[in-house]
Amino acid sequence: CTLHCTLYQRRVRDTALASRYFVSPTMKLIILVCCLMGLSTGDIKIVAPYEPHIEAPEPCLRICSGTTGRTTTNWQKYGDEGLNTYVDISGCEFRSDMTPIVTSSLNGKSHHWTVQGGSEVYNQNYRGFTIYLSWIESGDLFMDTTKLTKWRIDWATTGYIC
Q1: Are 133 and 27 in contact (CB under 8 A)?
Q2: pTM here?
Q3: Are 157 and 65 spatial neighbours (Cβ–Cβ below 8 Å)?
């Protein structure tokens, strides 16, 4: 599969070599699948899981990522000078008895550099987590700013699915 994938990717120009490695349309499909499988498989390992007493095989690891959306993030006022949002990761279908590892960031068009908390994950479990933001401006201006600047949480998780 590797030899055929390499030759196929190089698009052999030498007719003698090309005729020696003629590949039928069916074989091309098989080679393409092999190449894609080779590109999609990698070495994924969680070295320090949240629940070290629970074991799971490495082939059961999944990397899943997403966003709360530029216009769909459900920001809620939190106290006098803060906001929070719940980030739903249930679509990743992680095991309920093991907490996935989450990385998050606050993104947007502007002014997101004026807040803190966009990468701090709270109340994390296999279904989701909460992000809390704090800013020095008033609550009303803060809510308007999130809509105008399209603030969102982008995230990536790694966890077990079996």
Answers
A1: no
A2: 0.69
A3: yes
